[in-house]
Amino acid sequence: MSDLKDIVILGAGGLGREIVALVEACNAQRKEWNILGFLDPNPDLAGSEVNGYRVLGNDEWQPDDSVWFVCGIGDPRVRFRTVKKFSARGSRFASLIHPDVAIPKSVRIGAGTVVMAGTRFTVDAKIGDHVTVYVNCSITHDVEIADFCMVAPGCNLSGGVVLEEGAQLGTGVSVLPRRRIGPWATIGAGSVVNRDIPGSSTAVGVPCRPITRS
What we know:
This protein has 214 residues and is an alpha/beta fold. It is built from 2 helices and 24 strands.
């Protein structure tokens, strides 16, 4: 009997495929996971193979209790809805951290969170549940990232930065010390955040300024 844990990726798009590569990198260092495949709402993908793994069905697919999940959906609002649906069934979510990422003992990583290659932590950061941290980010002292946030490649979070629930940072965003980004806000790629950003807004630029509110 295999000691590997079965895992299913929710979403067969770009992030889902990147998570497959992340799981394979983790297994190359220490074999832990058996990838069963993907679940995806696109009916055209059902039964097909994506990067060598089968699309098992949509979010109505019912596994046994031993299966773990990880959400490979980039949009924080869609990820929120999907995770809530599976959590209501009692599903378990795996946290996946690339083997080249060192996690200091003072850093907390929540359930279902994904941290990709090249990211660096310093100390005393708190990362919530179902957060996606893409490649080559820097997360420094006392940063707090709430549940369902998305941090795109190459972001730099200075000391004391707070990202509230569902905040989304585009590629290459820099956030200056002690700035707060409100819940479900979106920061455009390349922006420099030197002020607090209100929730449910889209903000862009250098310096970063809100341009819309939802």
